[in-house]
From TrEMBL:
The keyword Lyase does not apply. Residues 1-58, 67-127 form the CBS domain. Keywords: CBS domain, Iron, Metal-binding, Zinc. This is XRE family transcriptional regulator. Zn(2+) binds at C171, C174, C190, C193. Fe cation binds at C171, C174, C190, C193. The keyword Zinc applies. GO terms for molecular function: metal ion binding. Residues 166-196 form the ACP-type MB domain. It comes from Halorubrum aidingense JCM 13560. Residues 142-163 are annotated as: Disordered.
């Protein structure tokens, strides 16, 4: 988890929070009351409220007037599987680690994927040792190959694993870990980003 994360207060002016979103290049801020996470402020929420207000004046709306529900929470010592389950079940792109009622860190979907990726001792991904197994994999992927020879991300993300359970993927637009990606403009995106 990242122990340094971006948080704002409910009473902060929305214009200042929006500037923080832009300056830090993030798409979500954790809204805190003291140290307790009580909401989230996403780019879309901030932009919509600022456009409705028609002004970037700091006396305009506050974060608390437009914030969304709190991000899902986990304990700092929860297993990676718990974090992944919360990301998928809540359709979120990040979870807040909470200890004794106070936010102590954030784990993004990208963090969870990176932490769960198989690696060798030197930090590189495992290499397939059996060339025949690699050829079998390529042959199995042939029906999903796009016109550019690559795998269509939307098709690959909507496939099933060996047990027949649906798999999930990361939205190429917002980074959310979701079970139902769709193809839009050559990217695998979540339904929310497809509508934008």
């Amino acid at each position: 988890m990242h122990r340094e994360f971006l948080g704002v207060s409910e009473s902060d002016p929305l214009a200042e929070a929006a500037a923080l979103l832009v300056d830090e290049g993030t798409n979500c801020l954790v809204v805190l009351r003291g140290g307790e996470p009580v909401g989230r402020l996403g780019c879309r929420d901030a932009l919509g409220a600022l456009l409705d207000a028609g002004s970037l004046d700091t006396d305009g709306p506050t974060v608390g007037s437009v914030m969304g529900p709190p991000l899902p929470t986990v304990a700092p010592d929860d297993a990676l599987a718990v974090v992944e389950e919360r990301l998928v079940s809540e359709g979120a792109d990040r979870v807040v680690a909470v200890d004794d009622g106070a936010a102590v860190g954030v784990v993004t979907a990208e963090d969870a994927l990176a932490a769960g990726a198989p690696r060798t001792g030197n930090g590189a991904h495992d290499v397939v040792a059996d060339e025949a197994a690699l050829e079998d994999t390529r042959a199995a992927d042939a029906p999903m190959a796009g016109t550019n020879g690559g795998i269509d991300p939307a098709v690959a993300s909507s496939s099933t694993d060996a047990s027949g359970s649906a798999t999930q993927g990361v939205c190429e637009s917002c980074g959310a870990l979701v079970p139902d990606l769709v193809s839009a403009n050559g990217q695998a995106v979540c339904p929310e980003c497809r509508d934008v």
